[in-house]
TrEMBL record:
Keywords: ATP-binding, Nucleotide-binding. InterPro entries: ABC_transporter-like_ATP-bd (IPR003439), LytTR_ABC (IPR012046), LytTR_DNA-bd_dom (IPR007492), P-loop_NTPase (IPR027417). Signal peptide: none annotated. The lineage of its organism: Bacteria, Bacillati, Bacillota, Bacilli, Bacillales. PROSITE patterns: ABC_TRANSPORTER_2, HTH_LYTTR. Residues 234-340 form the HTH LytTR-type domain. It comes from the Bacteria. GO terms for molecular function: ATP binding; ATP hydrolysis activity; DNA binding. This is ABC-2 type transport system ATP-binding protein. Residues 2-226 form the ABC transporter domain. The keyword Glycoprotein does not apply.
Length: 340
């Protein structure tokens, strides 16, 4: 349904991405972790509003070029903060889109899909931001195109709405839709799909458990043991400064492209230790390897969120209510640790 072949985009003097090869077939759900600027540009490319510097984008065997929009029958889009008709009620908006797309779905079926039955008679202008995003997701569901492309569908939504979107994507994938989700949040990327990539100026990189673990082990083997004295502070770097954190200050730690980032109060600081090093150093302080790419301070966990039967996150009490992924095989282990 969607194919990128040696795709490259240069904006001004900056390379946004290069050498991107990706194919999404029916029944696939793929997530790309991407920065905001590149996400906007990629959506412009996919809608025919911009063109690649080199390479090709194909949608349902149609070569995308500037000014050539993809067939609306073949692809549906969900844009971040897309417009809605505030004066219409939720029910009237759904009726309008059912007629627009010639859908066989009923209004009640759509309301139930996004769990807006109680809001059916409410004007859209009176809905919360999260429920407005659900309504945009409902429009995508009504459209029912074979290929669906979503831009940050869960940005700033509440937990209930995120769960509804995740369950909806799972259902659409089972119905054999091809799905591409672009997000600037890694926790969301890992929650939406098992096929996760990072995109940067060097290209597309698959987020692969064995690759990341092997990378950590290689770096660990290269290090010389110089720990002659016990030192509990965790060193981080900001420009030319070294900042030391007590373990109790740390909320969680994330591995990105083999580099570790320590998060304190919503801010991230790069650390020279590998994730394996940090796991070993911080185990006695109540830290837990909740995911291949994350270590969490269990004292900072406010809530364990269940999105689906096999998809979980931890909400962190860091003032930002950050959410980090919890691997499904770690859930039972964590329950035992918490005495649940």
């Amino acid at each position: 349904m969607l194919k990128l072949k040696q795709a490259e985009k240069i904006q001004g003097h900056s390379k946004m991405f290069s050498n991107v090869d990706l194919e999404i077939r029916q029944g696939d759900c793929v997530t790309i972790h991407i920065n905001a600027d590149t996400r906007v540009t990629l959506m412009q490319l996919l809608t025919g509003k911009e063109e690649l510097s080199s390479g090709d984008i194909w949608i349902d065997q149609q070569l995308m070029t500037k000014g050539k929009k993809p067939s609306w029958e073949k692809v549906g889009f969900l844009f971040l903060n897309d417009g809605l008709y505030d004066r219409l009620t939720v029910r009237d908006y759904i009726k309008f889109n059912i007629k627009l797309f010639g859908s066989t779905k009923t209004v009640e079926e759509v309301l139930n899909f996004v769990q807006l039955t109680k809001e059916a008679s409410v004007k859209i202008g009176h809905l919360t931001f999260s429920k407005r995003q659900r309504l945009l997701f409902a429009r995508l569901y009504i459209h029912n195109a074979p290929l669906m492309i979503l831009s940050d569908p869960d940005q700033n939504v509440d937990i209930e709405s995120k769960r509804i979107i995740i369950n909806g994507l799972n259902q659409l994938q089972k119905e054999d839709h091809a799905i591409l989700v672009l997000t600037s949040n890694m926790e969301s990327a890992l929650t939406f799909s098992n096929h996760v990539y990072r995109m940067d100026e060097r290209g597309l990189h698959e987020v692969n458990e064995s690759q990341e673990n092997n990378h950590d082990e290689e770096k660990l083997d290269e290090q010389v043991d110089t720990t002659l004295v016990e030192f509990n502070k965790i060193p981080t770097k900001v420009n030319d400064k070294i900042i030391l954190f007590d373990p109790v200050e740390i909320d969680y730690i994330e591995s990105i492209k083999g580099s570790s980032y320590v998060y304190v109060g919503g801010s991230g600081y790069q650390c020279t230790f590998t994730l394996n090093d940090l796991e070993s150093k911080l185990l006695s302080f109540g830290f837990y390897r909740c995911h291949r790419s994350y270590i969490v301070n269990l004292q900072k966990v406010r809530e364990v969120i269940t999105w689906t039967r096999n998809s979980f996150s931890l909400m962190i009490d860091d003032g930002e209510e950050s959410k980090i992924p919890l691997s499904k095989n770690k859930m039972a282990e964590l329950k035992d640790m918490l005495g649940l």
